[in-house]
Amino acid sequence: MGVLILCGWAFQIESLKSIFPGSVAASPNSALLLALSGVSLLILFPGTARAPVRHLARFLAILVTTLGTATRMEYLLSVNWGIDHLLFARQASAAGTSFAGRMSPTSSASFIAIGLSLLFLERETKRGRRPSQGLSLWPALVSLLVLTSYAYHATVPNKVWLYTRIPMPVAVALFLLSGAIFFARPHGGIAGDLTGEGSGSVMARRLLPAIFLIPIFLGWIFLKGERSGFYGMGLGLAIYSAASVVVFAFLVWLNTRKLNAEYAQRRAAETEIRTLNAELEGRVVERTQALERQTAVLAQQAALLDLAHDAIIVRDMNSRILFWSRGAEGMYGWPAQLAVGKIGFELLKESSAQPLEEIEARVIQQGHWEGEVIHHTRDGDRINVGARWALQRDTVGAPARILIINSDITDRKTAEEALRKSEAQLTYSAQHDFLTGLPNRMLLNDRVNQAIISAPRVDKKVSVLFLDLDGFKHINDSLGHPIGDKLLQSVAERLVKCVRATDTVSRQGGDEFVVLLSEMAHSEDAAITARRLLQAVAEAHSIDQHELYVTASIGVSVYPDDGLDAEALIKNADTAMYQSKENGRQSYQFFKPAMNVRAVERQSMEDSLRRALERNEFSLVYQPKVSLKTGEITGAEALLRWTHPNQGAISPARFIPVAEDSGLIVAIDKWVLRQASTQARMWLDAGLPLVSIGVNVSAMEFRNEKFLEGVFGILNEAGLDPRFLELELTESVLMKHPASTESILKSLRARGVQLAVDDFGTGYSSLSYLRKFSMDVLKIDQSFIRQITKAPNEAPIVTAMISLGRSLNLRVVAEGVETQEELAFLQDRQCDEAQGFYFSRPVTPQQLAKLLACGIPEPTAAGH
To answer: Residue 779's beta-bridge partner residues?
Structure first.
């Protein structure tokens, strides 16, 4: 009703404002409070609402109480706070009070009572009374008086207070709302008295409709007769009083007859119950005597049974204990005087793998049963029991009782369980990796062979994915083994989530994992899984406040194409994995037979690299850098060369990746830095005008925790001033861990070491980090310089790189300059320096000394 009235005000529908035709329009505030009260009661009524919802209902009740109180205060203090215009400004049609749109004082008081009754709906006094029911009586009485006045067409009663009129829809809603609150908790307070099961409650419920309806009906007849002129007020009151007495006396007589009939029925039932009790007591006496005789016989037998250490129990067919031996007392802690007469399975809290009903049925059918059950002692301890049951029959062959012998086998079961757990733990440990919990190499081999056996039967393929983490060694060395172990656990969890439950993820050791994909329909399914694994591993790993990033390289082999047993499949997948690393990492590669040859070559090269350091097979050559303004040599870059005793000169493109994968690059980097620093010191001692010597630094060496110590130690050992050293780092090295990179670069620059971004444009970088790192030199990769003449439409890229370097106050060096056209282009764009075959090929230390002394000749033929 409140919502209908609000809609009437919202859409200016006059019929909805008053609901009842001819009635004064209800104020919006009255309608709002009716709606809020109804919603609050609707939420609280079931009594099962969750805490947040109950808080909302109480908030609505507080809102109703507050608005009612504020309106009441406006009347008492003769003020106007504008509450009546809270929702709608123009409320002229709500003329029930002297203030348009304001609810009457009686209405506001009623809403205060309604709001408080909702707040106290769950409260109950120590005597069982509910304040909410008492509070709800006030609006009920007020609304009843108003409704009666409307029924009798009396104007004074419905004004009630200060001659303000209460609209009929408000009175109806208040009456219904009060009744709903009164009976919301029907089993307590006054409502409990009316809804109880006692005779008083029954009589009250019978009289309650008459109490409400008859006085109103008689009053209406009295009022009609008076207004029609049939009699005066005195005679009318006499008729009204006499009629009321007669009607209520008749109702009392009817209820008296009903109560007397019920009393007679109750007396007859009590007499019958006393008779039955007497008969039952006689039977109980007879049964008790029989049990006493039976107990005497059992007591004689008990003397012999008490000699046994096991628990001997006799019970009847209703599971009631008839005999309880001393062995049972010792096992369960219950003395016989407490145990006898109790229900056996209730006393012992008996349970077993087989339902007790089935056990009893088997005993009745076969006469005996033997098995294990679980019992509980008096102290609550759980014990394992070996039970033997035997059925005893009476003289006519009917089942009479069950003899039970129970043995405590808890210690034996505990020992057996411990042995099983130990065996299971040993088996698990023997087949699983201790760090990640994944299957180990032995279990993987077994599962691969099983998958190979079953694959032909279901016409499926089997795939093995060999996965190796890229960059794990650096994290393990720099952050410690505990962090490395947690990273391996994180990777293992992600790998398991990427495959099916029927697949297997195994750890081979170190940072190597093997994934078995069984029952594949197509070989392409392995590629899909490989891509999913690569993506999962590459996402950030949050470990001990570190955001760690690693990638993976995956090799894939497929049965039966790449091997017929587990050993061959795993070996070939491993070979394919190394090919994936050589192709750039963060990728996967299917096995091809030719890879075996390359794998052998790679292993041979790794062995040769280890010997090369020992046998001094490495050498350095130097390529000068030239100023494009003056043509003078501004420095030189040290380049590593390897002359194998059998194979001769080996390209760096072949042996550098192998050195990085095997970790030998760290030792090689140190050797290069030491040789280049010593040679630079020799040139300076000879008085040659050397500006700087450039040395490349690998990612693994840069991330070595002793990198700075090693650089400064070598410079001190060679006696070279750090300002003559220029370290060249690629973009990928700089951007891998920006925070730690910045700290290392600051330490180097603080000592005077120059820093260059090498091969710029081939990796990825952030301009903000380049500015933050405060580099000295920007070296444009030779692949971009080639485009100046080969793809002129891409030459603007070089122009942009030069402009970028100059805007960052970096010295820009172009690598790989080979033609006059390239030189002219760079000079026209104001590139600072260049190096390449156009000026000089890499030369020996002696040849570079001559160039430093005499300068580079005119490069007309130098590039040929």
So the answer is: 813
Query: Are the C-beta atoms of 323 and 302 separated by less than 8 Å?
Result: yes
Q: What is the pTM of this model?
A: 0.41
Candidates 469, 518, 460, 526; CA nearest to 494 is 469
Enter the DSSP assignment of 161.
B
Task: Output the CA angle 648-700-741, nearest 5 degrees.
Answer: 140
How many whole angstroms from its chain centre is CA 195?
49
C-alpha span between 115 and 61 (Å, rounded): 5
- For residue 853, the cross-strand partners are none
Count of C-beta atoms within a 10 Å radius of residue 783:
12
Distance CA 319, CA 316 (A): 5
Burial grade of 182 (CB within 10 A; 0-12, 13-18, 19 or more):
buried
Distance CA 293, CA 277 (A): 24
Give the DSSP per-residue string, 625-662. Answer: EEETTT--EEEEEEEEEEEETTTEEE-HHHHHHHHHHH
Burial of 202 (0-12, 13-18, 19+ CB in 10 A): middle
Answer for the pair 515, 508: CB distance below 8 angstroms, yes or no.
no
pLDDT 10s digits, 423-479: 877 778 888 888 999 999 889 999 999 999 988 888 889 999 999 998 888 788 778
Nearest to 702 by CA among 753, 658, 652, 651: 753
Helical spans, DSSP H, in 719-762: 731-735, 738-750
Question: Which residues on adjacent β-strands are paired with residue 506?
Answer: 514
Quick check: 436 and 495 in contact, CB under 8 A? no
Q: What is the CA 350 to chain-centroid distance, rounded?
A: 40
Tokens of 243: 């009629």
